[in-house]
Amino acid sequence: MAEAYYLEKVANETPDVRADRVAAVKEKLKDPNYLNDVVIKSAADKFLSALGI
């Protein structure tokens, strides 16, 4: 029971947004060569997969 309480507490305290990942992507987007067809297709595929499409 204590372990379940601890896991719930940790889950509730964990942010939904990972600021470190957001910052890393923002830095990548500053590079004009980063956005190419491969990156855009990969992002679109991951987004559609997350939606179950």
* Low-pLDDT residue intervals, each spanning 5 or more residues: none
Number of strands: 0
Q: Sketch the topology as an H/E string, one letter per element.
A: HHH
The major pleated sheet works out as: none
Radius of gyration: 17 Å
As a percent range, the share of helical residues equals over 70%
Strand content: under 5%
Average pLDDT works out at 89
Q: How far is it from the N-terminal to the C-terminal residue, by CA? A: 38 Å
What would you call the shape? elongated
Task: Please give a structural write-up.
This protein is mainly alpha-helical and 53 residues long. It contains 3 helices and no strands. The protein has helices at 2-13, 19-30, 37-51. It is elongated, with a radius of gyration of 17 Å. The model has no long low-confidence stretch (mean pLDDT 89).
